[in-house]
Amino acid sequence: MSADSSLKRCYARSVIFIAAVFLLRSPIQAADKAIVSSNTFDLKLTQVPDTPCLSMATVQGNPDKGPAVFVMKSVGVCKLPMHWHSFAESLVVVRGVKIEVPGQTPIRLRDGGFFYAPPHKVGGAVFAPNTLFFVSFDGGPLDTHYVDDTGKEISSKEAYNRLKHTQM
Q1: What is the pTM (predicted TM-score) of this model?
Q2: Domain residue ranges in the chain
Q3: Domain spanning 3-164, CATH architecture
Q4: pLDDT tens sequence across 82-102
Q5: Alpha-carbon torsion (13, 16, 20, 21), positive or negative
Q6: CA max distance for the chain
Q7: What counts of helices (H) and strands (E) characterise the chain?
Q8: In angstroms, rounded to a whole number, what is the distance separating the alpha carbons of residues 68 and 64?
């Protein structure tokens, strides 16, 4: 094994450890007294409903009922339309991602990067192929509200149809 590949493997483990420590300190921990552990690369990822370019696995919590932590991975280049969530979103990158926030310069996160969006903050994303990241919704269940250019809420189908005709 070369010194370069050993260094990369050590770096990857460090990033995953930091991500797990950061995300698992969330309010979810207060509601769930059990210790949770998993090896990210052993998790079985499934397609995210209405988002064929993302797969995910729940690491802790229940996304339908309350706070949750996920590991997510992009399948090919993945573009997410502008949207917002009812609860704050924290994201830690294991492998690179680009985040779009209207009215701001695009944010380019690298391995180990961190992103936080408060509730109701509109944003979108373009993920490179095989982007891997942890995401946490601390305040409650996962919900996604897609919006048009004026901020009016639209269906996921309409949001993805509009995305096909725009550049991000």
Answers
A1: 0.75
A2: 3-164
A3: Sandwich (2.60)
A4: 999 999 999 999 988 877 777
A5: positive
A6: 54
A7: 3, 12
A8: 9
